Here is the input.
Amino acid sequence: MTTSASTTIFRVELAVLTRRLWLQVATVVGLLILGIVALVAAGQSGQHQIDTLETNSASLLLIGGMAIAIGLGGGAFSRDASSGYLGLLVGSGMTPSRIGAIRIAVRLVALAAVFVIWGVGMQLVSVGIGRGINGPLIVHVGAALENAGLVLCASASLASVIGPITAGVFGLFVFICAQAVVNLKADLDQGAIDRSSRVFIAPVFSILPRAIVSPMIAALQHRNDAGPAAPTININGLTVYVPASRPLDVAWTLLWTLIFAGLATYGVRRRQL
Amino acid sequence: MHDGVILRHLTVRYQGTATPAITDITCDAAPGAGLCISGPEGSGKTTLMRAIVGIAPPTHGSISVLGASPRDPQLRRRIGYAPDRLPFPRGMRVLDALRIIGAIRGTDASITDTLIEVGLQPTDRRIIGGLETGDIRRVSLACAILGSPELLLLDDPWEYPETIDIIERARTAGTTIIIASPDPGGFPELVGAHLVLDAGTAE
Here is the structure.
């Protein structure tokens, strides 16, 4: 098997993926939402105008991005394995693990492409309302992409052995856990919960993947304007602000993403094709 | 020179199933000759083909394909396999399907010539999901014969004149041919041997 075979499959499968109607519709709907955000923001001024753009962009990336990641990850294997396509590729000389790796990579690239399209749309809105290029929003698109990539790979890791819906739910569950450990760590560090809880929180924070929080979301929280992407946490009357992720958090979650991608690849080796 | 395909007491049982899909199958298909496997729906024809191509591992018994184990990816590149239905994603184009198979097998054989050989347009860019059943069979056949493999496995091919020509030419070239069909028609005479399956066993 040659690199060119992998490249050919990658290129063709990416083209097939871009022809999926649901993915095209989701991408266009995201752009339409940004159009509405532009109209709303155009009628505002000052910090409020920037907050409108950033909050709604973050909401789109969280909700829309997660939905696409679940769709791509959960559907990574089941249909094409049942139809015999993956079996035909193996029967023609591919190894199952290489097929798994290519399909994960194709889906990650497709996910990144949607985020880039939306990200460009966000910057066009920013320029259009006279605010120029929004640097924090660029960083946030990257952070949201890492979170969505984690969800995609977590979904795909189960999609190689079970159905797409359950796999997608698992991917979402992984993200909820990742966000929960980050929130709990912030609660602990800011004294919102008893310090004796450290014995429980420290290990799970050390082990589990961590949702990536961009500096933009942290700043929006302080302005109490983060929307669904980072709602204000209020515990026992104390407001907790989730800090921006550190480089170690980014690397740790990337490692988990790779682990899930590896599990997905291993799962393809084990499943009936 | 290889020994074609040799199956000895082959049993395949899929994960999670109580009964084997095929049981204790013993047969040979020599180079330049072949075997037609027939039997009703669910008799194990497709499972036998999948075992030979290495995607349904044996529970018992042995398989030798072109002198090697079908689990070897290098060997599988020498096999042309046409499944009973075209399994490519619905959004894939005909040309791309052949490009993928050609790239995996490492062949530089002409895709356009192969498409003409099976009766399709040489630059067929149609989406597979929109093809009629007959054209799907032709694409499946094109994928199988691309690069002149040493072993041809055709699962439920249609008896087009092009199919008959391809099988006759492949036999002359020394290719081993195994055909599975619920309605064998003239295939047994064409390939020289006939195995009838019923409920996973040889009659």
Summary: Chain B has a mean pLDDT of 89. The CA atoms of residues 95 and 124 of chain B lie 6 Å apart. The first helix of chain B runs from residue 45 to 53. Helices of chain B lie at 45-53, 73-76, 94-105, 111-117, 133-145, 161-172, 187-191.
